[in-house]
Write a structure and sequence with these properties.
259 residues, Cobalt-precorrin-4 Transmethylase, domain 1, Methyltransferase, Cobalt-precorrin-4 Transmethylase, Domain 2, 2 domains, six-stranded mixed β-sheet, five-stranded parallel β-sheet, 24% helix, elongated, binds S-adenosyl-L-homocysteine
Amino acid sequence: MPHDDFPPASVWLVGAGPGDPELLTRKAARLIAAAEVIFYDALVGAGVLDLASPAAERVSVGKRSGRHSKDQATIDALIVAAARDGKRVVRLKGGDPAIFGRTVEEAAACAAAGVPVRICPGITAASAAAAAAGTSLTSRGVARRLSFVTAHARAGEPLDLDWQALAAPDATLAIYMGRAAAATVAQRLIAAGRGADTPVMVVVNASLPGERIIRGRLSSLAFLVDTISDHDPTLLLVGDAVRSPAPVACAPVHVMAQS
Ligand code: SAH
């Protein structure tokens, strides 16, 4: 192996990007090819796993919002056990491991067990969604800040977000795991002062074959997500920066107009 950054009995937490295997980093592709065991999430694109060695053991740990097939402690234990068994272990996560990826827990479990662990970044869903729509997440003089927000609450608990801060007119919000809470998000943002006519964009399956982009206004957010199945990864973008596609050479052809 040309690199010595992946010895036996070590772990890499690898960002698999939003789905399209071409959106993997070269480092991620190398680590996936070198892995002897790969623990992967449901959101990892099928084409990404194809880069693994045929001899590699592939273990689905199937994490999807609200439907974890294995709980976090079990995943942590599996990773540590495989590394202790002397394996080169890749923990493959959708998007970037450092954004809503439970990386802290997994890295801490490795560290506590004395297992060397490193992180390979990936392209996060918000970047892929903006690219798919031909737009930008920031815009000079319009959107000076960008907030990555999760709208996933524990069962039975209210969404505990700083609505006042999120309602600032110069902020773009990239809302992960937000489909189920879309109505609440819109209502709370508007109540906190965000304009009801603020542009929103719902991006489903960004960079994947079933990619879909739905545009509208904050006041109609609940309606916009209505037809989306909860199997399809969905990102909500809110803010004036996503008002219209940036003037890129190749405008996307799959934009559904909504107002
Ligand atoms: N670490 C990941 C996010 C994990 S949380 C990242 O950086 O992208 C899972 C959520 O990410 C999904 O519920 C969805 O909101 C979003 N997501 C992930 N992949 C997506 C995709 N291809 N298209 C749209 N949203 C996606």
